[in-house]
Design a protein that fits this description.
The protein is an alpha+beta fold and 367 residues long. It is built from 10 helices and 19 strands. It has 2 domains: 132 residues, Creatine Amidinohydrolase, Chain A, domain 1, CATH 3.40.350; 226 residues, Creatinase/methionine aminopeptidase superfamily (Creatine Amidinohydrolase).
Length: 367
Amino acid sequence: MKPFFEARYSRILEETDRAGADGFFMFSSESDNRPGIQYFSGFTGSFGILVFGEKGGRLVTDSRYFLQAEEESFFPLVRMEDRDPWPAVAQAVRELGLKNLAVEDDRLTLERGRALGKIISSFVGTSGLVRRLRAVKDEEELNVIRRSARIAAEAFEAFLPAIRPGRTEAEIAADLVHEIRKRGAQYPAKGHFVVASGPRGARPHGVFSDRMIQRGDFITMDFGAVLDGYFSDMTRTVAVGEPDPKLAEIYSIVEEARKRAVAAVSSSATGREVDAAARCYIASKGWGDCFTHSTGHGIGLELHELPVVSRLNGEKLPAGAVVTIEPGIYSEGLGGVRIEDDVIVHPDGAEVITGASPTELRVLCPA
């Protein structure tokens, strides 16, 4: 077992013992909990069950993934027969001598809980535990996320010449995905791919459409790369031709808000304080009602993780977390601006990892 997996394993066993259990159970089907399974075992298939305790662990999966599981995971494989996982789960529980399992009660369905209850009579819920553990990244994870962020930023810079009047949002979205994949990363299968031009920029999640780019448009693009399962998430807004002066003013406000929020990030700052650094500045310029979402969120094996950078989070941001900083202003009928960077939280400040793509306003296709 690699050292970083050993550290994760030790942490979850400590929490399992604190919860009064002697083992932990995780279930993923159709990738709904794949990040948790990957985090503790290395296995990346779309179906997997992980059972572990003091004596080690077992990975249960079906015949589609036998070879992959043996290549990726250090836990011994218990092979499913047909499509029924529960006999294999029972075998894993017996082999490990487990009597009381901790489960993710925010992930486990009632049906699966009933099936598990026929195998082991005692289990305890640990809602949100794995998400909290995963909020702090180890150095292995940080290095992968740095590379994912660099790929996204460099792909965006290479893609910029594809933006011009007469092309559709959908066409330029396809070009951006191509640049990301050329660099060895994937594009998220789930989640919003925002390419919102002109008045559509007032939609924070304006998924690309067949709208044609026009001279004078602002275009907001929210995208990222996935590398070894780890997400990056960034947003850039550009102008096509000379922009409306009001939009240019909005851009300068959002960019200053981004700078202030990044400067506020450290492990001694709460999510609420970092959010306020952006939100209060935007409000001071008269646009407070048009900043309609939180300033950021954690990223990692999922696009949205803990910690959140919002006025609802009074907890300090942990060192080693990776969060987005993404203030925005959205004005119906006019358009919108969002600028988003990924940053690593350190005790003494923030490390911006999407810096390969500048944040100043760029005017493409000038007259």
